[in-house]
Amino acid sequence: MVGLVRVSEPSSESAAAAPAMAPDHVERALLEARDLIESTVIRHRRELAQDSWAGTALEKVPLAEVVDTLVGGAERTVWVVMPGGEEQTDAVCTALARSAEGVHRSVDVRLLCGERTASANAIRALARADPRCEVRVGDAGLSEVLLVDGQLVYLRGGGRTDPARGGVRQATLVEDPATVRALELMFTGAWGNAMALAEYPRLDGRLCRDSARRILECLRTGHTDEVAAREMQVSLRTYRRHVAEIMRELGANSRFQAGVRAVERGLLPSRH
């Protein structure tokens, strides 16, 4: 004999509670569905773009198009090595500004800049305006690298050109998991040794000039003020004023320490 299960009527208490819970639950479900749809659309667009690049040399695809497509399709991470190229700086800043308006506003963005890029107003403005972005200053000798979601890497040669391809800079898109992981580890190591943009001395560009580097070298080697001022062909008073400014920006308590910190921050070459 088949038993019958009787469905009881909802109690008055549960009936009263249901209307209060339902709208919130439905809203969350709709938001999750929207995010999933937008994420799928973005990924699909990125894949279509990559398919369209397959028939041509990647270095012939405009840099802005590649960066915009890869950054716009990122879901978790965007890590960039920016040694100082103006074209790359403009492309990255534009792509990040556009992606900040989309669904993936919580993407982890890390910009590892060389000295030239760190001085660019666009980078400093981006660091202030975009809460996703963390900017550090490190080795300026690196090539341009864009790592997305730990899945693919876009490499662009640092000033090197390929004569066989019309003299344009070499570019590669890497998707091999082992290679991507190795490049990701290299980035992480360089990132750990870099300094925060806010701590990087700028001095309105004075530290980038030859005269400032010569002063830093004098501080590191222990030259007396009189000897250093004579070598630089400036007055003793002017030399000491420059020294005070440099020490203040470097946060150094002594002249020798200023020389050491200049090496640590890449403002002077290290001595082996």
TrEMBL record:
<dbReference type="InterPro" id="IPR016032">
    <property type="entry name" value="Sig_transdc_resp-reg_C-effctor"/>
</dbReference>
<feature type="compositionally biased region" description="Low complexity">
    <location>
        <begin position="8"/>
        <end position="20"/>
    </location>
</feature>
<feature type="region of interest" description="Disordered">
    <location>
        <begin position="1"/>
        <end position="20"/>
    </location>
</feature>
<dbReference type="InterPro" id="IPR036388">
    <property type="entry name" value="WH-like_DNA-bd_sf"/>
</dbReference>
<dbReference type="InterPro" id="IPR000792">
    <property type="entry name" value="Tscrpt_reg_LuxR_C"/>
</dbReference>
<feature type="domain" description="HTH luxR-type">
    <location>
        <begin position="213"/>
        <end position="262"/>
    </location>
</feature>
<protein>
    <recommendedName>
        <fullName>HTH luxR-type domain-containing protein</fullName>
    </recommendedName>
</protein>
